[in-house]
Amino acid sequence: MTTAPSTTATPVAADSWGYGALWRRVPRALGYLIPTFLIAIAVSAALTSLVSGAASLLVFVVGIYVLALTLLLSRYAGQFEIARLRFSGETPIAQPVWPSDPSMVWWKRWLRPLANGRYWLALLHGAIIAPIIATLSFVVLTIWLSFIVAAVALPIRLAIVGPELWAIDSTDPDWLIANGWLERVAPTLAVIAIVLGVIALVTLPYVLRGMTWLHAAIARPFLGRFTNEQLEQQVSNLFTSRQAAVAAEGSALSRIERDIHDGPQQRLIRLQMDLSAAERRLADGTADPAEAITLIQDARRQAHDALDELRNLSRGFAPPLLLDRGLFAALESLATRSSIPVTLETELGATANLPDEVARNAYFVASELIANAAKHSQAGGITLSVTTADGALVVVVKDDGAGGAVEKTGHGLAGLRDRSAGMGGTFALSSPEGGPTEVRVTLPLAGVGAASTAGDADSTPTA
To answer: pTM for the whole thing?
Structure first.
Protein backbone atom coordinates (compact mmCIF):
# COMPACT_ATOMS: atom_id res chain seq x y z
CA MET A 1 0.00 0.00 0.00
CA THR A 2 1.30 3.45 -0.96
CA THR A 3 0.00 6.62 0.58
CA ALA A 4 0.33 9.75 -1.52
CA PRO A 5 -0.74 13.27 -0.67
CA SER A 6 -3.65 14.55 -2.65
CA THR A 7 -3.00 17.34 -5.15
CA THR A 8 -6.64 18.24 -5.48
CA ALA A 9 -7.06 21.94 -4.77
CA THR A 10 -10.12 23.07 -2.95
CA PRO A 11 -12.19 25.12 -5.40
CA VAL A 12 -12.76 28.78 -4.70
CA ALA A 13 -16.24 29.47 -3.42
CA ALA A 14 -18.44 31.37 -5.85
CA ASP A 15 -19.08 34.15 -3.28
CA SER A 16 -15.42 34.57 -2.29
CA TRP A 17 -14.11 38.13 -2.30
CA GLY A 18 -10.47 37.24 -1.59
CA TYR A 19 -8.09 39.34 -3.67
CA GLY A 20 -6.16 36.42 -5.12
CA ALA A 21 -9.36 34.55 -5.93
CA LEU A 22 -10.77 37.63 -7.66
CA TRP A 23 -7.69 37.95 -9.85
CA ARG A 24 -8.06 34.33 -10.91
CA ARG A 25 -11.62 35.09 -11.95
CA VAL A 26 -10.71 38.18 -14.01
CA PRO A 27 -10.51 36.34 -17.40
CA ARG A 28 -13.93 34.76 -16.93
CA ALA A 29 -15.44 38.02 -15.68
CA LEU A 30 -14.11 39.87 -18.73
CA GLY A 31 -15.36 37.09 -20.96
CA TYR A 32 -18.82 37.66 -19.52
CA LEU A 33 -18.87 41.48 -19.31
CA ILE A 34 -17.26 42.50 -22.61
CA PRO A 35 -19.97 41.02 -24.89
CA THR A 36 -22.80 41.62 -22.40
CA PHE A 37 -23.77 45.04 -23.76
CA LEU A 38 -24.07 43.86 -27.37
CA ILE A 39 -25.93 40.71 -26.34
CA ALA A 40 -28.37 42.60 -24.10
CA ILE A 41 -29.10 45.24 -26.75
CA ALA A 42 -29.60 42.60 -29.46
CA VAL A 43 -31.90 40.49 -27.27
CA SER A 44 -33.85 43.55 -26.15
CA ALA A 45 -34.28 44.78 -29.73
CA ALA A 46 -35.47 41.37 -30.91
CA LEU A 47 -37.93 40.89 -28.05
CA THR A 48 -39.25 44.44 -28.28
CA SER A 49 -39.79 44.08 -32.03
CA LEU A 50 -41.62 40.79 -31.56
CA VAL A 51 -43.82 42.24 -28.81
CA SER A 52 -44.68 45.22 -31.02
CA GLY A 53 -45.46 42.92 -33.92
CA ALA A 54 -47.59 40.70 -31.71
CA ALA A 55 -49.49 43.73 -30.39
CA SER A 56 -50.24 44.92 -33.91
CA LEU A 57 -51.49 41.46 -34.84
CA LEU A 58 -53.64 40.88 -31.78
CA VAL A 59 -56.75 41.64 -33.82
CA PHE A 60 -55.87 38.47 -35.68
CA VAL A 61 -55.41 35.08 -34.05
CA VAL A 62 -51.81 34.92 -35.26
CA GLY A 63 -50.84 37.76 -32.89
CA ILE A 64 -51.47 35.54 -29.86
CA TYR A 65 -49.12 32.89 -31.21
CA VAL A 66 -46.45 35.49 -32.01
CA LEU A 67 -46.67 36.69 -28.40
CA ALA A 68 -46.38 33.12 -27.14
CA LEU A 69 -43.32 32.64 -29.38
CA THR A 70 -41.83 35.84 -27.94
CA LEU A 71 -42.28 34.52 -24.41
CA LEU A 72 -40.66 31.23 -25.39
CA LEU A 73 -37.66 33.08 -26.85
CA SER A 74 -37.47 35.11 -23.64
CA ARG A 75 -37.18 31.87 -21.69
CA TYR A 76 -34.28 30.63 -23.86
CA ALA A 77 -32.57 34.03 -23.66
CA GLY A 78 -32.85 33.82 -19.87
CA GLN A 79 -31.38 30.32 -19.83
CA PHE A 80 -28.48 31.59 -21.96
CA GLU A 81 -27.91 34.41 -19.48
CA ILE A 82 -27.91 31.93 -16.57
CA ALA A 83 -25.28 29.84 -18.37
CA ARG A 84 -23.12 32.94 -18.98
CA LEU A 85 -23.35 33.94 -15.32
CA ARG A 86 -22.31 30.45 -14.28
CA PHE A 87 -19.30 30.76 -16.63
CA SER A 88 -18.34 34.06 -14.98
CA GLY A 89 -17.94 32.23 -11.66
CA GLU A 90 -21.07 33.46 -9.89
CA THR A 91 -23.17 31.15 -7.76
CA PRO A 92 -25.33 29.13 -10.19
CA ILE A 93 -28.94 30.26 -10.47
CA ALA A 94 -31.42 27.42 -10.02
CA GLN A 95 -33.56 27.37 -13.16
CA PRO A 96 -37.35 27.14 -12.88
CA VAL A 97 -39.10 23.86 -13.56
CA TRP A 98 -40.65 24.33 -16.98
CA PRO A 99 -43.75 22.11 -17.34
CA SER A 100 -43.90 19.81 -20.35
CA ASP A 101 -46.80 17.64 -21.47
CA PRO A 102 -46.32 16.08 -24.94
CA SER A 103 -49.84 14.65 -24.79
CA MET A 104 -51.36 18.15 -24.77
CA VAL A 105 -52.98 19.45 -27.96
CA TRP A 106 -50.47 21.42 -30.03
CA TRP A 107 -52.29 24.76 -29.87
CA LYS A 108 -52.57 24.50 -26.09
CA ARG A 109 -48.83 23.81 -25.83
CA TRP A 110 -48.19 26.93 -27.91
CA LEU A 111 -50.40 29.10 -25.69
CA ARG A 112 -49.23 27.71 -22.36
CA PRO A 113 -46.45 30.37 -21.90
CA LEU A 114 -49.17 33.06 -21.77
CA ALA A 115 -50.45 31.63 -18.47
CA ASN A 116 -47.03 31.12 -16.86
CA GLY A 117 -45.63 34.07 -14.94
CA ARG A 118 -42.05 32.79 -15.33
CA TYR A 119 -42.17 33.58 -19.06
CA TRP A 120 -43.37 37.13 -18.44
CA LEU A 121 -40.60 37.74 -15.90
CA ALA A 122 -38.04 36.46 -18.43
CA LEU A 123 -39.50 38.83 -21.04
CA LEU A 124 -39.31 41.77 -18.61
CA HIS A 125 -35.69 40.96 -17.82
CA GLY A 126 -34.59 40.46 -21.42
CA ALA A 127 -36.42 43.44 -22.90
CA ILE A 128 -35.97 46.11 -20.20
CA ILE A 129 -33.93 45.18 -17.13
CA ALA A 130 -30.91 43.51 -18.78
CA PRO A 131 -30.17 46.38 -21.24
CA ILE A 132 -30.19 48.95 -18.43
CA ILE A 133 -27.77 46.97 -16.25
CA ALA A 134 -25.64 46.07 -19.28
CA THR A 135 -25.34 49.76 -20.23
CA LEU A 136 -24.28 50.67 -16.69
CA SER A 137 -21.66 47.92 -16.56
CA PHE A 138 -20.44 48.83 -20.06
CA VAL A 139 -19.83 52.45 -19.04
CA VAL A 140 -18.01 51.48 -15.83
CA LEU A 141 -15.92 48.84 -17.62
CA THR A 142 -14.98 51.30 -20.40
CA ILE A 143 -13.87 53.96 -17.89
CA TRP A 144 -11.79 51.50 -15.86
CA LEU A 145 -10.10 49.97 -18.87
CA SER A 146 -9.43 53.45 -20.34
CA PHE A 147 -7.57 54.49 -17.19
CA ILE A 148 -5.50 51.28 -17.34
CA VAL A 149 -4.69 51.75 -21.03
CA ALA A 150 -3.71 55.39 -20.42
CA ALA A 151 -1.42 54.38 -17.54
CA VAL A 152 0.36 51.94 -19.84
CA ALA A 153 0.35 54.06 -23.01
CA LEU A 154 1.66 57.34 -21.57
CA PRO A 155 5.03 55.99 -20.26
CA ILE A 156 5.55 54.11 -23.52
CA ARG A 157 4.71 57.23 -25.53
CA LEU A 158 7.08 59.31 -23.40
CA ALA A 159 9.88 56.77 -23.82
CA ILE A 160 9.45 56.76 -27.59
CA VAL A 161 8.79 60.48 -28.26
CA GLY A 162 10.85 61.97 -25.43
CA PRO A 163 10.52 65.60 -24.28
CA GLU A 164 8.81 66.49 -27.58
CA LEU A 165 5.70 64.82 -26.13
CA TRP A 166 4.87 68.09 -24.37
CA ALA A 167 5.72 70.34 -27.34
CA ILE A 168 3.06 72.96 -28.08
CA ASP A 169 1.69 73.27 -31.61
CA SER A 170 1.26 76.87 -32.71
CA THR A 171 -2.12 75.99 -34.08
CA ASP A 172 -3.45 75.30 -30.58
CA PRO A 173 -5.97 77.81 -29.21
CA ASP A 174 -4.42 80.86 -27.63
CA TRP A 175 -5.98 80.14 -24.25
CA LEU A 176 -4.08 76.83 -24.09
CA ILE A 177 -0.66 78.21 -24.93
CA ALA A 178 -0.96 81.49 -23.10
CA ASN A 179 1.94 81.93 -20.71
CA GLY A 180 3.06 78.30 -21.34
CA TRP A 181 0.11 76.96 -19.31
CA LEU A 182 -0.20 73.69 -21.25
CA GLU A 183 3.55 72.96 -21.04
CA ARG A 184 3.44 73.35 -17.27
CA VAL A 185 0.35 71.27 -16.50
CA ALA A 186 0.78 68.52 -19.12
CA PRO A 187 3.34 66.47 -17.08
CA THR A 188 1.14 66.79 -14.00
CA LEU A 189 -1.89 65.59 -15.94
CA ALA A 190 0.15 62.65 -17.22
CA VAL A 191 1.20 61.70 -13.70
CA ILE A 192 -2.40 61.94 -12.51
CA ALA A 193 -3.51 59.72 -15.40
CA ILE A 194 -0.84 57.15 -14.54
CA VAL A 195 -1.82 57.16 -10.86
CA LEU A 196 -5.49 56.75 -11.75
CA GLY A 197 -4.54 53.92 -14.10
CA VAL A 198 -2.63 52.13 -11.37
CA ILE A 199 -5.57 52.55 -8.98
CA ALA A 200 -7.91 51.24 -11.68
CA LEU A 201 -5.68 48.21 -12.25
CA VAL A 202 -5.48 47.42 -8.54
CA THR A 203 -9.24 47.73 -8.08
CA LEU A 204 -10.14 46.00 -11.37
CA PRO A 205 -10.88 42.58 -9.77
CA TYR A 206 -13.29 44.16 -7.29
CA VAL A 207 -15.02 46.18 -10.01
CA LEU A 208 -15.42 43.14 -12.26
CA ARG A 209 -16.71 41.00 -9.40
CA GLY A 210 -19.09 43.74 -8.33
CA MET A 211 -20.55 44.05 -11.82
CA THR A 212 -20.97 40.31 -12.35
CA TRP A 213 -22.52 40.05 -8.87
CA LEU A 214 -24.94 42.86 -9.76
CA HIS A 215 -25.99 41.09 -12.96
CA ALA A 216 -26.52 37.84 -11.06
CA ALA A 217 -28.39 39.49 -8.16
CA ILE A 218 -30.82 41.19 -10.52
CA ALA A 219 -31.23 38.14 -12.79
CA ARG A 220 -31.93 35.71 -9.93
CA PRO A 221 -35.49 36.88 -9.05
CA PHE A 222 -36.43 37.23 -12.72
CA LEU A 223 -34.81 34.10 -14.16
CA GLY A 224 -34.33 31.86 -11.12
CA ARG A 225 -36.58 29.46 -9.34
CA PHE A 226 -39.18 30.74 -6.89
CA THR A 227 -38.67 30.02 -3.19
CA ASN A 228 -41.66 27.68 -3.08
CA GLU A 229 -40.31 25.79 -6.07
CA GLN A 230 -36.98 25.35 -4.30
CA LEU A 231 -38.76 24.05 -1.20
CA GLU A 232 -40.79 21.62 -3.30
CA GLN A 233 -37.61 20.40 -4.97
CA GLN A 234 -35.91 19.94 -1.58
CA VAL A 235 -38.88 17.97 -0.29
CA SER A 236 -38.84 15.82 -3.43
CA ASN A 237 -35.09 15.20 -3.06
CA LEU A 238 -35.53 14.35 0.61
CA PHE A 239 -38.31 11.87 -0.21
CA THR A 240 -36.17 10.29 -2.94
CA SER A 241 -33.15 10.02 -0.65
CA ARG A 242 -35.23 8.41 2.08
CA GLN A 243 -36.58 5.86 -0.39
CA ALA A 244 -33.03 5.14 -1.55
CA ALA A 245 -31.86 4.74 2.05
CA VAL A 246 -34.68 2.30 2.79
CA ALA A 247 -33.85 0.35 -0.38
CA ALA A 248 -30.16 0.25 0.55
CA GLU A 249 -30.99 -0.92 4.08
CA GLY A 250 -33.29 -3.67 2.78
CA SER A 251 -30.69 -4.79 0.28
CA ALA A 252 -28.04 -4.86 3.02
CA LEU A 253 -30.18 -6.94 5.35
CA SER A 254 -31.05 -9.38 2.54
CA ARG A 255 -27.37 -9.73 1.66
CA ILE A 256 -26.36 -10.36 5.27
CA GLU A 257 -29.14 -12.89 5.75
CA ARG A 258 -28.20 -14.71 2.55
CA ASP A 259 -24.48 -14.70 3.30
CA ILE A 260 -24.98 -15.97 6.86
CA HIS A 261 -27.35 -18.69 5.68
CA ASP A 262 -25.09 -19.86 2.84
CA GLY A 263 -21.83 -19.55 4.75
CA PRO A 264 -21.30 -19.68 8.50
CA GLN A 265 -24.68 -21.27 9.24
CA GLN A 266 -23.99 -24.26 6.97
CA ARG A 267 -20.50 -24.70 8.40
CA LEU A 268 -21.80 -24.56 11.98
CA ILE A 269 -24.39 -27.22 11.13
CA ARG A 270 -21.61 -29.38 9.68
CA LEU A 271 -19.54 -28.67 12.80
CA GLN A 272 -22.40 -29.83 15.03
CA MET A 273 -22.82 -33.02 13.01
CA ASP A 274 -19.10 -33.83 13.13
CA LEU A 275 -18.94 -33.27 16.90
CA SER A 276 -22.03 -35.47 17.41
CA ALA A 277 -20.46 -38.23 15.31
CA ALA A 278 -17.19 -37.97 17.25
CA GLU A 279 -19.11 -38.14 20.50
CA ARG A 280 -20.82 -41.36 19.40
CA ARG A 281 -17.49 -42.85 18.34
CA LEU A 282 -15.94 -42.11 21.70
CA ALA A 283 -18.98 -43.43 23.58
CA ASP A 284 -18.72 -46.72 21.68
CA GLY A 285 -15.90 -48.64 23.39
CA THR A 286 -15.35 -50.85 20.32
CA ALA A 287 -14.88 -47.89 17.87
CA ASP A 288 -11.53 -46.84 16.48
CA PRO A 289 -10.33 -43.65 18.29
CA ALA A 290 -8.62 -42.53 15.05
CA GLU A 291 -12.01 -42.05 13.40
CA ALA A 292 -13.11 -39.78 16.24
CA ILE A 293 -9.88 -37.79 15.99
CA THR A 294 -10.46 -37.34 12.23
CA LEU A 295 -13.99 -36.08 12.88
CA ILE A 296 -12.73 -33.63 15.51
CA GLN A 297 -10.07 -32.34 13.09
CA ASP A 298 -12.75 -31.81 10.42
CA ALA A 299 -14.87 -29.99 13.00
CA ARG A 300 -11.95 -27.73 13.87
CA ARG A 301 -11.46 -26.84 10.18
CA GLN A 302 -15.18 -26.07 9.87
CA ALA A 303 -14.93 -23.80 12.90
CA HIS A 304 -11.89 -22.03 11.39
CA ASP A 305 -13.64 -21.52 8.04
CA ALA A 306 -16.79 -20.25 9.73
CA LEU A 307 -14.71 -17.75 11.70
CA ASP A 308 -13.05 -16.50 8.49
CA GLU A 309 -16.42 -16.03 6.82
CA LEU A 310 -17.76 -14.13 9.81
CA ARG A 311 -14.73 -11.86 9.67
CA ASN A 312 -15.37 -11.18 6.00
CA LEU A 313 -19.00 -10.39 6.73
CA SER A 314 -18.03 -8.02 9.51
CA ARG A 315 -16.14 -5.85 7.03
CA GLY A 316 -19.49 -4.47 5.94
CA PHE A 317 -19.86 -2.86 9.37
CA ALA A 318 -17.89 -0.06 10.97
CA PRO A 319 -14.62 -1.55 12.27
CA PRO A 320 -13.35 -0.56 15.72
CA LEU A 321 -10.37 1.15 14.06
CA LEU A 322 -12.73 3.57 12.31
CA LEU A 323 -14.50 4.40 15.55
CA ASP A 324 -11.28 4.75 17.55
CA ARG A 325 -8.82 6.42 15.16
CA GLY A 326 -10.92 7.88 12.34
CA LEU A 327 -11.39 7.37 8.63
CA PHE A 328 -7.76 7.92 7.60
CA ALA A 329 -6.43 5.08 9.76
CA ALA A 330 -9.30 2.80 8.70
CA LEU A 331 -8.59 3.42 5.01
CA GLU A 332 -4.88 2.73 5.51
CA SER A 333 -5.75 -0.58 7.16
CA LEU A 334 -8.23 -1.35 4.37
CA ALA A 335 -5.58 -0.70 1.71
CA THR A 336 -3.03 -2.96 3.37
CA ARG A 337 -5.49 -5.86 3.48
CA SER A 338 -6.26 -5.75 -0.24
CA SER A 339 -4.99 -8.59 -2.42
CA ILE A 340 -4.22 -5.99 -5.13
CA PRO A 341 -1.82 -3.09 -4.37
CA VAL A 342 -3.78 0.02 -3.39
CA THR A 343 -2.45 3.58 -3.65
CA LEU A 344 -4.17 5.81 -1.12
CA GLU A 345 -4.39 9.50 -2.04
CA THR A 346 -6.09 11.65 0.56
CA GLU A 347 -5.98 15.13 2.00
CA LEU A 348 -7.51 13.92 5.26
CA GLY A 349 -5.26 13.94 8.26
CA ALA A 350 -5.30 11.49 11.11
CA THR A 351 -7.37 13.98 13.10
CA ALA A 352 -9.89 14.79 10.37
CA ASN A 353 -13.21 15.61 12.00
CA LEU A 354 -15.96 14.07 9.88
CA PRO A 355 -19.58 13.31 10.79
CA ASP A 356 -19.92 9.71 11.96
CA GLU A 357 -22.45 8.83 9.26
CA VAL A 358 -20.24 10.24 6.50
CA ALA A 359 -17.11 8.47 7.78
CA ARG A 360 -18.90 5.14 8.16
CA ASN A 361 -20.48 5.28 4.72
CA ALA A 362 -17.26 6.46 3.10
CA TYR A 363 -15.42 3.50 4.64
CA PHE A 364 -18.09 1.10 3.45
CA VAL A 365 -18.05 2.52 -0.10
CA ALA A 366 -14.25 2.24 -0.29
CA SER A 367 -14.30 -1.28 1.20
CA GLU A 368 -17.02 -2.45 -1.19
CA LEU A 369 -15.36 -1.04 -4.29
CA ILE A 370 -11.89 -2.32 -3.44
CA ALA A 371 -13.24 -5.79 -2.63
CA ASN A 372 -15.17 -5.97 -5.89
CA ALA A 373 -12.21 -4.66 -7.88
CA ALA A 374 -9.96 -7.33 -6.39
CA LYS A 375 -12.56 -9.97 -7.17
CA HIS A 376 -13.69 -9.03 -10.69
CA SER A 377 -11.52 -6.40 -12.40
CA GLN A 378 -8.32 -8.41 -13.10
CA ALA A 379 -6.44 -5.22 -12.24
CA GLY A 380 -2.82 -4.86 -11.34
CA GLY A 381 -3.33 -1.79 -9.17
CA ILE A 382 -6.04 0.26 -7.53
CA THR A 383 -6.07 3.97 -6.65
CA LEU A 384 -8.23 5.13 -3.75
CA SER A 385 -8.69 8.90 -3.57
CA VAL A 386 -10.57 10.59 -0.71
CA THR A 387 -10.86 14.38 -0.86
CA THR A 388 -13.25 17.17 0.06
CA ALA A 389 -14.85 19.51 -2.48
CA ASP A 390 -17.88 21.80 -2.43
CA GLY A 391 -18.95 20.73 1.04
CA ALA A 392 -18.83 17.01 0.28
CA LEU A 393 -16.50 14.06 0.79
CA VAL A 394 -15.47 12.59 -2.56
CA VAL A 395 -14.44 8.93 -2.73
CA VAL A 396 -12.91 7.79 -6.03
CA VAL A 397 -11.77 4.22 -6.70
CA LYS A 398 -9.98 3.61 -9.99
CA ASP A 399 -8.41 0.40 -11.29
CA ASP A 400 -6.48 -0.56 -14.42
CA GLY A 401 -8.49 -3.72 -15.03
CA ALA A 402 -10.56 -5.04 -17.91
CA GLY A 403 -13.50 -2.65 -17.44
CA GLY A 404 -17.04 -3.45 -18.50
CA ALA A 405 -18.60 -2.98 -15.06
CA VAL A 406 -22.39 -2.56 -15.11
CA GLU A 407 -25.10 -1.85 -12.57
CA LYS A 408 -27.70 -4.52 -11.85
CA THR A 409 -30.72 -4.06 -9.63
CA GLY A 410 -30.16 -5.57 -6.21
CA HIS A 411 -26.40 -5.99 -6.69
CA GLY A 412 -23.27 -4.20 -5.52
CA LEU A 413 -23.11 -1.06 -7.64
CA ALA A 414 -26.85 -0.44 -7.47
CA GLY A 415 -26.63 -0.78 -3.69
CA LEU A 416 -23.85 1.82 -3.59
CA ARG A 417 -25.93 4.17 -5.74
CA ASP A 418 -28.85 3.79 -3.30
CA ARG A 419 -26.49 4.35 -0.37
CA SER A 420 -25.08 7.58 -1.82
CA ALA A 421 -28.57 8.80 -2.76
CA GLY A 422 -29.73 8.06 0.77
CA MET A 423 -27.00 10.40 2.02
CA GLY A 424 -28.05 13.07 -0.50
CA GLY A 425 -24.92 12.42 -2.59
CA THR A 426 -24.12 11.22 -6.09
CA PHE A 427 -22.75 8.09 -7.74
CA ALA A 428 -20.96 8.00 -11.09
CA LEU A 429 -19.55 4.95 -12.90
CA SER A 430 -17.17 4.99 -15.87
CA SER A 431 -16.09 1.56 -17.08
CA PRO A 432 -15.51 1.20 -20.82
CA GLU A 433 -14.54 -2.19 -22.21
CA GLY A 434 -10.81 -2.63 -21.75
CA GLY A 435 -10.75 -0.27 -18.77
CA PRO A 436 -9.95 1.67 -16.78
CA THR A 437 -12.87 1.60 -14.37
CA GLU A 438 -13.57 4.62 -12.17
CA VAL A 439 -16.31 4.99 -9.58
CA ARG A 440 -16.88 8.42 -8.00
CA VAL A 441 -19.12 8.79 -4.96
CA THR A 442 -19.85 12.10 -3.21
CA LEU A 443 -21.24 12.24 0.33
CA PRO A 444 -22.36 15.66 1.58
CA LEU A 445 -20.74 16.59 4.85
CA ALA A 446 -24.06 18.11 5.91
CA GLY A 447 -26.39 16.23 3.60
CA VAL A 448 -29.98 15.09 3.90
CA GLY A 449 -31.29 11.60 4.03
CA ALA A 450 -30.55 8.65 6.20
CA ALA A 451 -27.39 6.64 5.82
CA SER A 452 -27.47 2.89 6.01
CA THR A 453 -24.74 0.90 7.68
CA ALA A 454 -24.16 -1.91 5.24
CA GLY A 455 -24.52 -2.71 1.56
CA ASP A 456 -24.61 -5.40 -1.06
CA ALA A 457 -21.36 -7.06 -2.05
CA ASP A 458 -22.60 -9.40 -4.74
CA SER A 459 -20.70 -10.82 -7.63
CA THR A 460 -21.50 -8.13 -10.18
CA PRO A 461 -18.32 -7.07 -12.02
CA THR A 462 -17.19 -3.72 -10.75
CA ALA A 463 -14.15 -1.57 -10.17
So the answer is: 0.51
